[in-house]
Amino acid sequence: MKAEGKGPDFITIDGGEGGTGAAPPAFADHVALPWIYGFTEVYQLFKEKGLTQDIAFIGSGKLGFPSEIMKAFALGADLVNIAREAMLSIGCIQAQECHTDKCPTGIATQNKWLSSGIDPRLKSVRFAKYINTLRKETLEMAHACGYEHPCQVKMKDIDISCGDNNKTITLEQAFNYEKDPVAFESMDALMECQYLAGLGRTLNALNKH
Hints:
Radius of gyration: 20 Å
Helix content: 40-55%
Largest sheet: 3 strands, parallel
Oligomer: single chain
Strand order of the largest sheet: 1-2-3
CATH architecture of the largest domain: Alpha-Beta Barrel
Number of domains: 2
CATH superfamily of the largest domain: Aldolase class I
């Protein structure tokens, strides 16, 4: 990538915690690295080559909670994928039937009879409430750390427990690197960005006229 200026736009690191609930227990428990170890290993490789600003890093694997999102952003992730928690918000009961096409809730199936049991008017509201609450609480955590946006959180801001001796150390101490800072001016600047919210603001203004 560095020599030719070519490469992917993003890389998704999916930890061993993720995946279908129907995975064999031996695979779910013992195959693949936990997300935090897999991500930090890959991120440091790109950091050593000076490429972290040229690619978007996506975290995946039980990251659907504010504390986990804060940790992911502190380690260098730019965004996270969320599946398990989103499915739970619309009624997944973890029946472990994903691979049979017989999901009793109608979520993880292509069976028309089973999927007809999902009421989109109800489930869409439940999903929206989950996402809105997740974003709100994540921002509250960022504000409590003195930042405007979670992307500003640093590894030294988050402590992790090391064993049962009551010892805690920062993420920076644990993984022996510091994430490259993310370019962030302010939320107002994002709102004015022509490629993001600014485009929506412009279209709304045009519609009013």
